[in-house]
């Protein structure tokens, strides 16, 4: 009887240990599956729901290292913008790299593409009128109706003086001119592909600074033209359908080559704050 009881006790202990190990394995398996949500990260990458304080916190924690900043931002997007503590994000980054490396690397690559090449706010001072300024707000996916119902895929930088052809527009990044000329919606526009792969779209220009050519290399700060009010027409040169402003859009291509837009407001806000919240 004692032997039976002993064996029963040993069996129960072994079952308890097995149950603990099984529970740990199930929890670990669930963590591997859930430590990084590609779909959530991609949706929030596009929306870029990010405050100036969060940008500063992530940059400061990363020691102003852009690679580290982009990793924190990638994980922040994957957490559905709920996790803001850099220490917790760093731990999640390590797990995501370990268990969901390919998905993490893809989203992180997109994040780096839109952040790593930023050097210059795209609008400068008016010659002889240093007091004139610009304003802009987060208008991502607000309703637009010209050409059919659609969401606004960019940020409008509005002129305090509603006069076309006086506010200079500069390239935000180094890059290569990929598109130039008239578009029905964008009017006179220029599109520049940055070294990291993002496409920067400057629309509604009054005129170009020069005769840019497709494939031409530009540097951050290159004078592209003047802010205007061209567009919303099939007739080239149409003006006056809206107030003078620069529409600034940022686009990426996914791994299959399909283009998608990213909210440009946080990047513009970052550059604006970096130059002291005033035109230069």
Automatic annotation (TrEMBL):
Classification via InterPro entries: Cell_wall_metabolism_enzyme, Dup_hybrid_motif, M23ase_b-sheet_dom
Q: Which CDD domains match?
A: M23_peptidase
Annotated GO MF terms: metalloendopeptidase activity
**Alphabetized UniProt keyword annotations:** Signal
- Record's signal peptide: none
Q: Would the keyword Magnesium turn up in this protein's UniProt record?
A: no
Q: Which residues form the M23ase beta-sheet core domain?
A: 151-255
Quote the protein name from its UniProt record.
M23 family peptidase
Q: Which organism is it from?
A: Roseburia intestinalis
Supply the source organism's classification. Bacteria, Bacillati, Bacillota, Clostridia, Lachnospirales
């Amino acid at each position: 009887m004692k032997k039976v009881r002993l064996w029963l006790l040993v069996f129960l202990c072994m079952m308890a240990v097995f149950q603990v190990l099984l529970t740990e394995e199930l929890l670990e398996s669930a963590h591997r599956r859930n430590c990084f949500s590609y779909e959530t990260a991609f949706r929030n990458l596009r929306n870029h729901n990010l405050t100036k304080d969060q940008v500063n916190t992530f940059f400061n924690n990363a020691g102003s290292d852009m690679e580290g900043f982009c990793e924190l931002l990638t994980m922040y997007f994957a957490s559905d913008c709920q996790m803001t503590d850099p220490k917790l994000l760093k731990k999640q980054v390590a797990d995501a790299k370990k268990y969901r490396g390919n998905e993490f690397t893809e989203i992180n690559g997109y994040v780096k593409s839109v952040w790593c090449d930023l050097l210059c706010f795209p609008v400068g001072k008016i010659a002889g009128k240093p007091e004139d300024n610009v304003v802009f707000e987060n208008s991502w996916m607000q309703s637009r109706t010209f050409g059919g119902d659609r969401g606004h895929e960019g940020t409008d930088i509005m002129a305090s003086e509603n006069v076309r052809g006086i506010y200079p527009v500069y390239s935000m990044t180094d890059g290569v001119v990929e598109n130039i000329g008239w578009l029905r919606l964008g009017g006179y526009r220029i599109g520049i592909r940055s070294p990291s792969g993002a496409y920067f779209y400057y629309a509604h220009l009054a005129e170009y600074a020069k005769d840019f050519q497709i494939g031409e290399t530009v540097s951050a700060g290159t004078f592209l033209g003047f802010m205007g009010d061209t567009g919303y027409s099939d007739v080239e040169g149409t003006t006056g359908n809206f107030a003078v402003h620069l529409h600034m859009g940022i686009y990426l291509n996914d791994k299959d080559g399909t283009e998608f837009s990213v909210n440009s407001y946080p990047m513009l806000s970052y550059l604006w704050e970096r130059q002291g919240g005033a035109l230069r």
